[in-house]
Structures are given as structure tokens and as C-alpha cells.
């Protein structure tokens, strides 16, 4: 695999796929969240991928964050159809990427955009907000059994790499590293949800987790996502003190997720929300980040603003 970090300038990730779909009028109040539209409106997913590519994104993540075989089974969807939907999630992103790439001038120095198969945590399947706590009450075996089928499906599929996102648990990160070790041709990054500038959501120090990840074959980066922007600089420093792995940061817009109402709540001390990301991103790159982007409530327009500032 060609390194995602080859090419000019920092890597630019996409933004919040689910919230972009909501902005187009789709109701995602469902345990499957954005993956609901794999069943109901797959063309809309392809359209949003295209929006982020046109905004400048070098990497687009599939709509599979909250899609899993157990999650589909809970909705009465059988294994065969669940596999088809997971494969569709990747195919929609690949089709959007390939169609976009076909229209790019051959003389352009822009990177070939990559497709990252999004793997959400066990907490995303629970749909109770525990991806921001990590208090699942299950052990290593249960986490392995939950992740294994989807992981191997993505590792053998069309995506360029696997993006493990919003991981709140050190134990879950270890399970994902074990799975990466089983699939020698796959490449992945692991990105954590963090409540402050030093810890991941289960309370483990992010420096300790980074030390566990360091040196893992085919782990292309570590990251922080769906975390308040004000914590990002400190988290970069903690990770960089341990490892030379590339660091990806794609925070949310500074809001907090209310699991009971399934909505985002504005936090008054976060400044200008997503509009502040371009200015903040300069500092994150100077602190050691290799790529930036956005998570929930970060739109294609916000990614376009990041593109203008970071590559301008």
C-alpha cells in the first residue's frame, strides 16, 4: 500500500458523514444511525462522499461506523444481507472516489483519495453513548467476537485501509491490534475518543495506549477524533512523546453528545465551533499532527475552509 502521507502537504480527512446526511434532511434516529441509509437511501451516501471529495478531502470514511452484523441482526437482518450491506458501504465510497478521480486533471498534484473502512467501537453498536465512556462491562473475548467478522470482511474488501474510530477503551484497542496482526495485507489507524488532554475515555493515559500501539506492523497512524478541539494540542503532545507514528486529529465541532436525546448540545466555552478549526489546525500541525479533518457536525464547507487554509 502507498503511504497515505506521501504527497504534498498534510493529509486532509473528511468531516461528519452522518451529520452531513442529517443536514440533507435524513432522519438517522435509529440504532444503525447513518448505516440506516444503506437500506433506505444509498445514493445519498455516495453524494455526501462526493461533497467531501470536492471540498478537498484526501480520505473518505465509509458509512459503516455503526454498521455491524450484530447490529443488523438486532434489526432482523440476516447475516447474508448484513454482509452485503457492509460491502455496499465500501462500494459506495469507492464509486464516489473513482468517479471524482476520473474528473481530476492529470496534471494535478493532488493525492489519489483513499477510502477508509470505518470500524466503530462496541459502544457504537450499543447506541447508548458508551463510545465516550468505554464502560462496556464485557471482556476481551466478547470484544474479539464482536469485531472479528466485520474486520476480516473489510480487510479482504475494496477499501484502502481500515479506520478504527472513536475507540474509548484500551482493551478494545488491544483487540483491534490483535485483529490487525491476523490480516497481514491490511493497514489501519486507531483513533481515540478523549474527555481531556491526557486520557482516553476509559481513563487510560493516551501515552500508555500509544506505547502499546507503537511498533505494530501495518498500523499507519494513531489519532484522536470526536473530541473537543480544546484538548487536541495536548493529546498530540502526549502521543508524540511516545511514538513517531503519524498522528491524525479530527475533532467534533466542540459540542457534547446527549445519549438520551440522541442530539448534540452546544458547549459555550468552545468558541466558534467548526468555524475555528482552520485556525486551530495550524497549531495542531505545528505540534506534530500529520493530518487533520473533522468529525460530528463538521460539514463539507468546513473541510473546504480547512483545505484553503492548510494548502493555500
Helices and strands in order:
Elements: E1 11-12, H1 17-23, H2 36-40, H3 42-55, E2 59-61, H4 69-74, H5 79-102, E3 114-119, H6 122-126, H7 140-155, E4 161-167, H8 170-182, E5 188-192, H9 206-213, E6 219-225, H10 232-240, E7 247-250, E8 256-258, E9 263-265, H11 277-287, E10 291-292, H12 300-311
Helix pairs in contact: 3-5, 3-12, 7-8, 9-10, 11-12
Characterize the structure shown.
The chain is α/β, with parallel strands linked by helices. The chain has a single domain (11-102, 109-311), classed as Homocysteine-binding-like domain (TIM Barrel, Alpha-Beta Barrel), CATH 3.20.20. Helix content is 42%, strand content 13%. Strands 1-10-7-6-5-4-3-2 form an 8-stranded parallel β-sheet. It has a two-stranded antiparallel ribbon with strand order 8-9. The longest helix is centred in the first third of the chain and has 24 residues, at 79-102. The protein starts with 10 loop residues before the first strand and ends with a helix. The model has no long low-confidence stretch (mean pLDDT 91).
Amino acid at each position: 500500500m502507498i503511504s497515505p502521507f506521501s504527497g504534498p502537504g498534510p493529509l486532509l480527512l473528511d468531516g461528519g458523514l452522518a451529520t452531513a446526511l442529517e443536514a440533507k434532511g435524513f432522519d438517522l434516529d435509529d440504532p444503525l444511525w447513518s448505516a440506516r441509509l444503506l437500506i433506505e437511501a444509498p445514493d445519498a451516501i455516495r453524494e455526501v462522499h462526493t461533497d467531501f471529495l470536492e471540498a478537498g478531502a484526501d480520505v473518505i470514511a465509509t458509512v459503516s461506523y455503526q454498521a455491524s452484523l450484530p447490529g443488523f441482526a438486532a434489526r432482523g437482518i440476516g447475516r447474508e444481507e448484513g454482509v452485503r450491506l457492509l460491502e455496499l458501504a465500501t462500494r459506495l465510497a469507492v464509486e464516489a472516489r473513482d468517479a471524482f478521480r476520473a474528473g481530476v486533471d492529470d496534471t494535478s498534484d493532488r493525492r489519489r483519495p483513499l477510502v477508509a473502512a470505518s470500524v466503530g467501537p462496541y459502544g457504537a453498536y450499543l447506541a447508548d453513548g458508551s463510545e465516550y465512556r468505554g464502560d462496556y462491562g464485557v471482556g476481551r473475548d466478547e470484544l474479539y467476537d464482536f469485531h472479528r467478522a466485520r474486520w476480516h470482511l473489510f480487510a479482504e474488501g475494496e477499501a484502502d485501509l481500515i479506520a478504527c474510530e472513536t475507540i474509548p477503551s484500551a482493551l478494545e484497542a488491544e483487540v483491534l491490534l490483535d485483529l490487525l496482526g491476523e490480516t497481514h495485507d491490511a493497514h489501519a489507524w486507531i483513533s481515540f475518543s478523549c474527555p481531556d488532554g491526557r486520557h482516553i475515555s476509559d481513563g487510560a493515559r493516551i501515552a500508555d495506549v500509544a506505547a502499546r500501539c507503537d511498533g505494530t506492523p501495518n498500523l499507519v497512524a494513531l489519532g484522536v477524533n470526536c473530541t473537543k478541539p480544546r484538548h487536541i494540542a495536548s493529546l498530540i503532545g502526549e502521543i508524540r512523546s511516545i511514538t513517531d507514528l503519524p498522528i491524525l486529529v479530527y475533532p467534533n465541532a466542540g459540542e457534547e453528545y446527549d445519549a438520551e436525546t440522541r442530539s448534540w448540545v452546544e458547549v459555550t466555552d468552545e468558541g466558534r465551533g467548526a468555524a475555528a478549526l482552520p485556525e486551530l489546525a495550524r497549531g495542531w500541525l505545528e505540534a506534530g499532527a500529520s493530518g487533520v479533518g473533522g468529525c460530528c457536525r463538521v460539514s463539507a464547507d468546513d473541510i473546504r475552509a480547512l483545505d484553503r487554509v492548510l494548502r493555500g
